[in-house]
Amino acid sequence: MFSPFITIKKLREKISKKEVNTSEVIRFYLDRIKNHNPKLNSVLEAFEDIADQNIGTDALLGGIPYLVKDVILQKGRLATGGSKILSNYKAPYDSTVNERLKKAGAISIGRANCDEFAMGASGEASGYGPTNNPWDESRVSGGSSSGPAAAVAAGLTSFALGTETGGSVRQPASFCNLVGMYPTYGLHSRYGVMAFGSSLDQVGTLTRTVYDNALVLTALSGQDAKDSTTIQIQPKDYTKNLDGKLPENFTVGVIKDALESDGINGEVSQAFNQAIETLKKLGAKVKVVDLPHLKYGNAVYFIISRAEGASNLSRYDGSLYGKRAEGADNLFDMYLKTREQGFGREVKLRIMTGNYVLSAGHKDAYYNKAQAVRAIIRKEFDQAFQDVNILISPTYSMLPFKIGELASDPIAMYMGDLFSVPNCVIGTPGISIPCGFSKTNLPIGFQLLGPRLSEELLLKVAYAFEQSTDYHLKHPGNYE
Predict the structure, then answer these.
(1) I need a surface site. Which of 190, 276, 367, 409 has the fewest CB within 10 A?
(2) Is 23 a catalytic residue?
(3) 42 has catalytic annotation
(4) Chain segment 178-210, per-residue pLDDT in tens
């Protein structure tokens, strides 16, 4: 009928020409999930009750199936946040992003696995087990949007929605040979998205190609009266400037740390250097840019995200949402037992860290200082964009690692986010695209970072790079 790795663009053409109808498309992907998900654990629930629907196909994404990271509410469906504490929670309303996709004609076919409450960098912190990488099932698919990335990479869906607080869309995209974008903070509504770090969180899309990512961005973006942080911006078509060419007099800034850091895997560095050469061949001028405070980005993110996470997770205590522990002697005991039984280890660690940095006697030393350094990093990036059009770096400093490999060394996992965290801290966009493979056929991605609301520019450059390479055309062999 069609390849499981067909792009949204080509699948839309087939549906429009009536070569295939939407019920056939839905059934095709539901069968793929049934056959392949047991090896991956990327999908927590497939919506079998929609299998026979034949939905109108005239809209922007008419008839296109997608999966949703399970921190994004879908009305009437379970929404667990990857946590046992919400294992029985059904969403009473739709998130705005899900509502907008449905309005655009897309069809949600299920819930995708993720690190618990989006807290993780590997997918191993899910209350429902880790997600395996389709390129090598003994390895992680990245986190926290582990399930969405693995599902798209394995051809279980056309695209998927993830969320990102500090790399949680771009890192899985890099690990799974996909395109993943963190948009400008406020470009997408967070209404109906379980909060982790409220000043950092954004919904991002995982797709096979840059064009497909731009198409979904077109459907999702725009102000939402239900989210006061959304930006007042007119709807636009993010696909219109994708012509395969770089803008004239275009300068790329290579982050100095990306060339000099000893912590970057050698094969990642090699692929990144090759990507720089490709951009040069496309006509880009290349300039090395020093960002002296970049090295503090992880520490700033660590403090702010844990503080906001601890505050946001205080609502899960058994009194209103999800499961309540049995056998409690009093109200305080009920809170204590519910949170002890319901939360996983990673979430508990982050709550404790967050409460510590917000506590009396420590807030000035940690949280307030982190906010001050955040402002310095923002100023440093703003100054860099006066001299260059975009910045580039590897998306993640390591190759996809073995499941359990970093269990005893979480700091190494956190440090891998060196390049993906800073732009989340300041709310500017970034996109990860494929740029090569290791000797053992593991995907490698690099990222393009731009100033606020530069999504059109990032997509244009990413598309030009993609069209001059063939990395995006490769798929995991076991899932053909």
Answers:
(1) 409
(2) no
(3) no
(4) 999 999 999 999 999 999 999 999 999 999 999
